[in-house]
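Hi R.,

As promised on Friday, here is the backbone we talked about, encoded as structure tokens. Could you run it through your design pipeline when you get a chance and send me back a sequence?
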């Protein structure tokens, strides 16, 4: 299986692509790119070796992410006195090669899933319209709800945790690296199935309503009305999840996708019940329940309802302690230890404005876990201006791609700014992961709690903390990853960064042949 699975990662542009206050200045194009500086454990006492690094030129924004694995070599910024440092030549990448890299990163597994699902369903709709799809003649509703149920499953916390458990415990001891990379790519990009099935379900529903209206002479008006209402609600819910709406008008997306979606589910129940109890042949309502209970549509609706309810059943109002080390960051402390690679959704209210953050924890047996919230929008700004004492959260946490790190023998976790929130637990809970954190005045910005956890659990030879303020700029991240990859013996890299940093590292790692998975903005 080709390793290219690991390089096509899906990201959707959004507010998270921008720089939060804790990351401003990290990717200033006017700042000087510096050579990788070593951790003290890697510096040779006998001689100082100077290696100049060159940065891969930035290409147009590719909203995808890959994460490479790397470790730090024996490097030093100094060169023997009296000698001129040699000039390293930039790696030559042809225009065709660069364009191919950009295309591969754009047409990632997410888009492959989306394309496959939508084209498969489109073919089914065309065949059904031509009378060559016998199943669709009697089970249009099942095709609608089957797609919608699959879309719901791909976003269900419990189902995804189950998939990760199967992958981690089923593959890590025996599977070759290419299989692990492929499975990780699939797990990270199931959102493509979610989007494809949701859009396809809406398309099948339109086809079904058109079919009902065509036969309106023998169909009851109540069934037609229920179908039209259901169709309208489902289409609004699907369109509200369009990336531009979701990322730039988050509250509008949440209101329409969630609440209109719930209304759509209620209308679906009415449509299913009415449609399966009305006998079009005789023009009467069936009084027995057998026709309803034997309908596939009913059981699809049942499972849709169950999987929508499961995360909300675990909703709790919990106490929280808020530490504000700087005006740029709020560190939230909750009870309970959490395993690595999970994310939490939190809100000040029970059903609105949920935001996802990476969880920092020392392990399941720990008494606490932490969330790092960088000031960016109204929600995070309010955490600093008006720290809450209680917050709403779902006790069932959802898995991010970092959760798959347990499949790999050794890896690198590179992050910038507040991305440390998603990256740190992996390096704390596993001695086989190397941490690279690039930030501006990290100790002052993020406070003693976070820096204390780092120094308590991660050995100096297993981390690089790059302070861009003290060092006068950011490092050449791609070269840093190459060097760390070679010296640490990594298999994979996970990246958590803003869009500009993510794109730069993704393209560089792809060009260097490093297996990497990057930041997603599709939650």
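Update: got your reply. Pasting your designed sequence below so it's all in one thread:
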């Amino acid at each position: 299986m080709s390793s290219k699975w690991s390089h096509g990662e899906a990201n959707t542009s959004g507010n998270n692509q921008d720089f939060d206050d804790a990351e401003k200045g990290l990717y200033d194009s006017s700042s000087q790119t510096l050579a990788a500086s070593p951790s003290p454990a890697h510096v040779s006492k006998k001689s100082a070796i100077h290696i100049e690094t060159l940065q891969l030129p930035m290409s147009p924004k590719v909203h995808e992410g890959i994460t490479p694995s790397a470790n730090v070599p024996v490097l030093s910024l100094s060169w023997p006195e009296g000698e001129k440092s040699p000039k390293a030549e930039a790696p030559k990448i042809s225009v065709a090669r660069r364009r191919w890299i950009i295309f591969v990163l754009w047409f990632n597994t997410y888009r492959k899933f989306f394309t496959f699902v939508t084209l498969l369903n489109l073919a089914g709709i065309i065949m059904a319209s031509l009378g060559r799809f016998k199943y669709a003649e009697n089970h249009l509703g099942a095709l609608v709800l089957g797609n919608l149920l699959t879309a719901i499953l791909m976003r269900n916390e419990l189902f995804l945790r189950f998939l990760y458990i199967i992958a981690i415990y089923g593959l890590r001891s025996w599977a070759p690296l290419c299989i692990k990379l492929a499975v990780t790519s699939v797990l990270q990009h199931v959102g493509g199935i979610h989007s494809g099935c949701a859009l396809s379900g809406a398309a099948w529903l339109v086809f079904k309503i058109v079919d009902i209206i065509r036969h309106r002479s023998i169909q009851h008006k109540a069934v037609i009305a229920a179908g039209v209402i259901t169709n309208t609600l489902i289409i609004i819910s699907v369109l509200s999840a369009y990336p531009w709406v979701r990322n730039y008008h988050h509250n509008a997306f949440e209101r329409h996708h969630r609440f209109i979606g719930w209304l759509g589910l209620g209308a679906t129940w009415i449509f299913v019940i009415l449609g399966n109890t009305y006998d079009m042949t005789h023009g009467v309502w069936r009084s027995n329940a057998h026709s309803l209970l034997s309908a596939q549509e009913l059981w699809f609706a049942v499972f849709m309802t169950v999987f929508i309810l499961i995360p909300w059943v675990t909703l709790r109002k919990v106490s929280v302690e808020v530490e504000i080390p700087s005006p740029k960051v709020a560190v939230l402390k909750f009870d309970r230890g959490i395993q690595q690679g999970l994310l939490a959704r939190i809100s000040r209210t029970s059903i609105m404005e949920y935001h996802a953050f990476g969880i920092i924890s020392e392990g399941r047996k720990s008494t606490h876990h932490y969330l790092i919230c960088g000031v960016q929008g109204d929600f995070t700004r309010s955490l600093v201006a008006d720290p809450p004492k209680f917050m709403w959260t779902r006790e069932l946490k959802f898995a991010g791609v970092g959760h798959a790190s347990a499949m790999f023998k050794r890896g690198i976790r590179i992050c910038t700014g507040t991305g440390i929130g998603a990256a740190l637990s992996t390096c704390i809970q596993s001695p086989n992961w190397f941490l690279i954190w690039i930030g501006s005045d990290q100790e002052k910005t993020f406070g003693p709690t976070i820096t204390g956890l780092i120094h308590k659990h991660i050995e100096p030879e297993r981390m690089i903390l790059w302070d861009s303020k003290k060092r006068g700029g950011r490092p050449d991240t791609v070269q840093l990853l190459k060097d760390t990859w070679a010296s640490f013996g990594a298999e994979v890299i996970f990246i958590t960064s803003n869009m500009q940093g993510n794109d730069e590292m993704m393209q560089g790692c792809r060009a260097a042949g490093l297996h990497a998975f990057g930041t997603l903005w599709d939650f």
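One thing I noticed while checking it: Confidence is low (pLDDT under 50) at residues 1-19, 23-90.

Thanks again,
M.
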